[in-house]
Fold this protein.
Amino acid sequence: MTAIAENPATTAASALEWLDPSTLTVDVNVRKDAALTASFVASIKEHGVMEPVIAHRKDDGTVHVLMGQRRTRAAVEAARPLIPVMVIESPEEAERIVTQVVENIQRAALTEADEADAYHQLSLIGVSVSQIAKKTGRTKTTVEDALKAKSSTAGDTALGKGCTIEEALIVAEFEDDEDASAEIASVLADEPDQLHHVAQQLRDRRERAAALAALKAELEATGKVIVEDAGHYAGEENLYVSAARRPDGENATEDDANAYLITRNWQGVHSATPVITGWEELGFTARHERYDGGSTAQKGPMTDEQKAERKTLIENNKKMESATTVRREWVAGLLGKKQAPKGWQYFTVHAITHHSEVASGYDGEVAATMAGAKIEGEKSWAWNPLKDHVAKTTARPEVYLIALICAGYEKTIAKDSWRSPHQSHRDYLNQLVTWGYTASETEKIIIDSGK
């Protein structure tokens, strides 16, 4: 037995011993998959274990492996009679797990499922999120996300199937919604790069459904029904009150409404607009005929092609709204990094010289959010939290400049910009893609329009 001193991987009382690997106890390790490849076992069989396994001896005499699970199992499979084992004082269970996590993270050998499992083990024995983050060098958010995914049955299952913590967290978010879960599973299988966009579409869809349910409960007392669509022209199934005439020829009023359409303005606020459903049967007439780009009025109801185009319009507008949320959050994450993205100088100069409106018309709240600046005060005319923040600090000016430019572009992109893309939209989205952003289906329409 040889005493070992001043080894950073061991304690002062550590000792090197040669032990039969089959007699060692391999505790539950944070790396579930020992990854015993044939070549690795063959190497151990020929050369033996070159790097000592780290273990500790318990009071009953059994030796428990702390680090070197893979080497130990390979030695057993290769029938090696003895392997070098550095026996150290028994550490606390939390320290054992933390040591394994840190070791494997540094070696890039720990899967995200194993990492989440390790955080879960640590949390079960009372280690706080902040302590786990500090000991492993991960961010507090990363640890919180991992624990949240792990606490969900669907999230835990997703981790076991090879999903990342981020993917598992999204799976967990929708585990109580069968349709949404099926859609998430389909995206993970076929288009994983679109996961964030689809997830945001599902969130927005859920939000709209919740708002609709709340307003519906309020309106049911009036005997009105809720419709999903309405128009201003003849041929529409449901007609806005403002676009209808009574049987006596007078313009219709809200008193004539027998239904409501729930709409949402640019601020995300829902409201109920009065509508007449079944208006033709009730004797109402439309105040306007439909025009299709020219001066000739179209008579009669919408064609199937027009209905399909309208459906696509509505669906793509919704998707574009969801993409806006994902895009702005992505930019905020990009600007939250230590270094500004490569090529930001030319990006800002090009924007100011080629699309001057982006610098003069930016939204201060959007810019401040993207830059991670503290937002103070209440919304009012000319309110600009980025301006207020910059007035108080001279740190990281490049981040605020990039955020200003991005917010300026964001203000020019509307939910229906995919219909008539502008060069400025293409320049902006192409730059984000260059920096690593994954464009949504509707954003790709804008990007591809310039080809």
Observations:
- The longest strand covers residues 270-277.
- The chain has 18 helices and 14 strands.
- Residues 1-12 have pLDDT under 50 and may be disordered.
- The two ends are 73 Å apart (CA to CA).
